[in-house]
Design a protein that fits this description.
heterodimer; A: 42% helix; B: alpha/beta; 5-stranded mixed β-sheet; 4-stranded antiparallel β-sheet; globular
Chain lengths: 302, 521
């Protein structure tokens, strides 16, 4: 659990982060969302002390991060960055093993853990002897995630981890990411400016603007119960899409009656519609689903 | 000067050449190694503390701009002569590229990579050795490459301070008018530079991992090169001898000492500008010099008696092309104003004023002319320009100034002086190519260096100074269309000298005494 209490940071007298407080719970993905310059990356980097906070306290499992040696703190926190941040002079094997090597794990343990992660992240072990520049962007990003996961740290910080990927690769990695067992027990804070990504991955979202947190809540809360006009405005351009994506079939149960769609009840409306639209036999299913969603929506907005 | 004779020279002298190449490489590697030891940490330091970078790079840059000869000059009072001043000077030249490239390399590492490394929990040491240095390595090696090439070039000057190297051939060849000798030094030096550059370039392309495997091999190469250097340059003699490159190759020099006296002094090659001081300070015990040199008096040196007469006396006189005398009809009688006005003791005294009292050649020349009622104020004439050359030592500067004042005072010609033209070859070639009109030369040099007279003729024409003068004058006119004007009056000859105190202690008065002393035990 990460607790951030009244933390501020200024650069050259300008507030980058202004007295913010939030909490990321265990087994939760908390997304810091905002436009560039809103202070979300600064906030993230203060947690592993890449940037030192000017004031306020940050607690991890109740312990102040300033009470620990900075290197030890960082070795206990997985960090994934944009453009992977892999070391260009290290092979993929060495890149993944960076932290275990610092921790002086024995070779067998490192090798076993590396192969375990490669399998989970759908990477071939052929790449181990290659250098980062020989890999595609998607592969690099997966290696970056493997590097952050290898030491089993309970906390993972991710700074725009998928920002440099094309949309198709991004969608693939998103779905892999969500199904990755390794991540289910971690406290994860993910920084992004991509609204869809935030809604796709986040259990809760902190919407930030000009160094302050405007609203924190689940995707549904933020969408249907915006705290002010800024929040409403922020999502206006892809609002409908987000609604389709945040609503799951289970939510629509009361409006579907006993009509059977034969789809898993935790899949979202958007994906279900996609699937139904591919099959000309299922036009009726499609229409029923749209209708149910519209009714559900009416209730939410009131 | 055909290619074949160059090969002949090289095959005749291959022992010397090999020694010189080894010494050259030894000097280069050793200084480069030290420069890396000093420069790399400095580069890292200023990359960490950027505030220092301006001043450190500034100082290294200023050191770099000091002309190499001057730098060697500065080194002598502090380090004497031999390998130490040469290595220190080379080290200084190698420093800037190494420091600058280390700094540039480290500061050029992508900040995102550094942030990733920090976020993984690396401490400063790990960051440096695992990330910054490996990533900066190609840039650092490029700096070492530059430094190596600079050092191969500058190491040719090491022969000025008796540190050996290919400069012995290059500067010997210039003094002795021996093109093959120059090429035998210059070509290997150039090849070494190219070769080192290419070899280091290979390392530059290596992946960091391959470099790590080499990290013990490379220092080993440097150290072996250093050890070999000291082995080859160690002299086993009881007496430390240092001779000028010109003396080394002349019949009335080291060659004569070996053939006539059977004396092998195992000499090092040293520049005459530093030789006297080195003898005075005990860095050398035996040196070759000129009998009229002012420093003999100043440094209390003792001239060994030449009991087998291998150093015949020679006249000094201006040499000039006949066609120049025709072009400037006033010139000959003006130059002759100085003829016979100087004798050995006057010339020694004038040299003493220059070398030890640090008077300028202008003042010495003017004082002398005034004293002899020869001085006239310059006419500021402009009916043609006479270019006077001089070699790079005090006596020649003084004579050059005297001629300048005479020509400006007695004629309407203008004078341009081109002083400090290195050795005999440079001066003579300048004269032949009409880059200068005349310069003072010595009949002995004309006989032995320029004409390359065979031994039989030598034994006839060196019977007296006058004979020599007649012979070189007629030969020069025949071969080059150059005349020797009337001699200045002083005799200059080579001489061997020691510190007076040491000579007395060892009871050495003649060169034969010296030989007996060296052969005893």
């Amino acid at each position: 659990m990460i607790k951030v209490e009244s933390v501020s940071k200024s650069f050259d007298g300008k507030h980058a982060v202004d007295d913010i407080s939030f909490q990321a719970n265990e087994k939760e993905i908390l997304v810091l969302l905002g436009t560039s310059g809103c202070g979300k990356t600064t906030t993230l980097k203060m947690i592993n002390r890449l940037i030192e906070a000017d004031s306020g306290t940050i607690l991890i499992d109740g312990k102040n991060i300033r009470d620990r040696k900075v290197e030890d703190l960082r070795m206990g926190i997985g960090f994934v960055m944009q453009n992977s941040g892999l070391f260009p002079h290290y092979t993929i094997r060495e890149n993944i093993a960076t932290v275990p090597n610092l921790l002086k794990w024995d070779k067998k343990k490192i090798e076993d853990r590396t192969h375990e992660l490669l399998t989970k992240l759908n990477l071939s072990s052929d790449i181990l002897t290659r250098f980062p520049s020989e890999l595609s962007g998607g592969q690099q990003q997966r290696v970056g995630i493997a590097r952050a996961l290898i030491a089993n740290s309970p906390i993972l910080l991710m700074d725009e981890p998928f920002g440099a990927l094309d949309n198709i690769t991004k969608a693939d990695i998103h779905s892999e990411f969500k199904s990755l067992e390794e991540l289910k027990n971690k406290t994860i804070i993910l920084v992004t400016h991509d609204v869809q990504e935030a809604f796709e991955l986040g259990h809760r979202i902190c919407l930030m603007d000009r160094g302050k947190i405007i609203q924190t809540g689940t995707p549904k809360e933020i969408l249907y119960d915006p705290k002010n006009d800024f929040v409403k405005e922020f999502f206006s351009s892809n609002r409908l899409l987000l609604e389709y994506k945040t609503t799951i079939l289970k939510d629509l149960q009361p409006f579907l009656g006993d009509f059977q769609l034969n789809l898993p009840e935790d899949s979202n409306v958007w994906n279900s519609l996609q699937e139904l639209s591919l099959d000309s036999q299922k036009t009726e299913h499609y229409e029923r689903l749209v209708k149910a969603f519209n009714e559900y929506r009416k209730r939410q907005i009131v | 000067m055909t290619q074949q004779s160059l090969w002949q020279f090289i095959s005749d002298q291959h022992d010397k050449l090999l020694t010189q190449i080894t010494q050259h490489l030894g000097l280069t590697f050793l200084s480069l190694f030290l420069a890396i030891i000093v420069g790399l940490p400095l580069g890292i330091l200023i990359a960490r503390k950027r505030k220092l970078s301006g001043s450190v790079l500034g100082i290294a840059g200023v050191l770099q701009t000091i002309p190499s000869i001057a730098l060697l000059g500065f080194m002598i009072p502090a380090f004497g002569i031999g390998a130490t001043p040469a290595i220190v000077a080379l080290l200084i030249y190698a420093l800037l590229p190494i420091i600058r490239n280390t700094y540039t390399g480290i500061t050029g590492v992508n900040p995102a990579i550094l942030e990733a490394a920090k976020a993984m929990g690396m401490n400063r040491k790990q960051l440096l050795f695992k990330v910054e240095l490996p990533l900066a390595m190609p840039v650092i090696i490029a700096g070492i490459r530059t430094a190596a090439v600079i050092n191969v070039g500058v190491a040719t000057l090491a022969s000025f301070v008796a540190a050996g190297g290919l400069g012995e051939f290059i500067f010997g060849g210039i003094s002795l008018n021996n093109t093959n000798m120059i090429l035998a030094g210059a070509i290997p030096a150039a090849l070494l530079a190219v070769l080192l550059d290419k070899i280091i370039a290979v390392f530059q392309k290596f992946k960091y991992h391959d470099l790590e495997k080499l990290k013990y091999i490379i220092p080993a190469i440097f150290i072996v090169a250093g050890v070999v250097y000291f082995l080859t340059s160690k002299s086993e003699s009881k007496i430390k001898a240092g001779f000028t490159p010109e003396f080394m190759g002349r019949q009335d020099g080291d060659l004569g000492l070996r053939s006539v006296y059977g004396l092998n002094a195992n000499p090092k090659v040293v520049n005459d500008a530093v030789m006297y001081k080195a003898a005075y300070e005990g860095e050398l015990d035996l040196i070759s010099g000129y009998s009229t040199d002012g420093r003999i008096k100043a440094f209390d040196l003792y001239v060994l008696e030449d009991d087998k007469k291998i150093f015949p006396p020679y006249f000094a006189a201006p040499i000039i092309k006949t066609k120049t005398l025709v072009k400037f009809p006033e010139l000959e009688k003006t130059l002759d104003l100085l003829a016979g006005k100087l004798n050995d003791s006057i010339m020694t005294d004038l040299n003493y004023k220059s070398d030890n009292l640090n008077q300028t050649p202008e003042k010495i020349a003017k004082d002398f002319l005034i004293k002899n009622n020869l001085y006239k104020v310059s006419n500021n004439g402009n009916s043609g320009t006479i270019r006077i050359g001089s070699k790079i030592f005090g006596e020649q500067y003084i004579l050059g100034e005297m001629y300048k004042m005479l020509i400006e005072g007695y004629t309407n010609y203008r004078v341009e002086t081109k002083t400090g033209l290195g050795g005999t070859k440079i001066c003579f070639d300048a004269l032949m190519n009409d880059a200068i009109d005349f310069y003072p030369e010595y009949t002995g040099t004309g006989l032995l260096v320029l004409l390359k007279t065979d031994e039989q003729t030598l034994s006839i024409v060196t019977k007296s100074a006058e004979n020599t003068y007649q012979y070189v004058n007629s030969e020069f006119q025949k071969q080059y269309g150059i005349q020797w004007l009337k001699p200045l009056g002083f005799n200059n000859s080579y001489a061997l000298m020691m510190r007076k105190k040491q000579a007395e202690e060892l009871k050495i008065k003649t060169i034969s005494d010296l030989k007996n002393y060296l052969n005893s035990k």
